[in-house]
Amino acid sequence: xxxxxxxxxxxxxxxxxxxxxxxxxxxxxxxxxxxxxxxxxxxxxxxxxxxxxxxxxxxxxxxxxxxxxxxxxxxxxxxxxxxxxxxxxxxxxxxxxxxxxxxxxxxxxxxxxxxxxxxxxxxxxxxxxxxxxxxxxxxxxxxxxxxxxxxxxxxxxxxxxxxxxxxxxxxxxxxxxxxxxxxxxxxxxxxxxxxxxxxxxxxxxxx
Length: 207
Ligand SMILES: O=P(O)(O)OC[C@H]1O[C@H](OP(=O)(O)OP(=O)(O)O)[C@H](O)[C@@H]1O
Ligand SMILES: O=c1cc[nH]c(=O)[nH]1
Ligand SMILES: [Mg+2]
Fold this sequence. Notes:
Cofactor: Mg(2+)
EC number: 2.4.2.9
CATH architecture: 3-Layer(aba) Sandwich
Number of domains: 1
Pfam families: UPRTase (PF14681)
Distance between the termini: 34 Å
Number of helices: 6
Family: Belongs to the UPRTase family.
Catalytic activity: UMP + diphosphate = 5-phospho-alpha-D-ribose 1-diphosphate + uracil
Bound molecules: 1-O-pyrophosphono-5-O-phosphono-alpha-D-ribofuranose, uracil, magnesium ion
Mean pLDDT: 97
């Protein structure tokens, strides 16, 4: 598994705003959108381009477009806050949706929806979820994708815990992970420490 920590000063500043308990829902969503731009920018660095001849007002030249825009899959709820930004940067991409809620007693993810193309053979998939804690949710989501044939998955998250990264590594799934920070660990409620709290509640309010 390839791990990239996007620790650009602008990313660290946005992440700090998200961590701060004084940041309200609207400002949290704004910082997450801005951080998502940086994660997408880094994670798309090696996407393949197709050449095409274009005509400028002056002459003709070689232009470029993405050869195969990835499928974008936000994990509901919290990943929804990254979806529109990622789609804006990858406007030709299709989007699928996976709904998972972690049982706060067992910490195991419970799936409540999956809206994905039937076959993902040959498709590169970008999974969006701000939080990688125990890793249970992302393993569940990525397994749904590989069950449909995906062989190349890029996970974008704001924060990752070492235990979650280890769980993804041990899963053997074909993953690359881009995160803005690898935090210290998990507390006894399986929340990331120092973390930012519940990323769904921080954006949309407590349920
Ligand atoms: O790595 P894990 O231990 O599985 O935890 C991470 C998951 O927890 C959060 O979702 P949550 O279950 O709180 O749902 P929500 O987005 O609806 O709040 C987060 O967005 C991840 O999906
Ligand atoms: O710290 C955590 C862990 C899981 N889910 C969250 O939203 N935050
Ligand atoms: Mg939550």
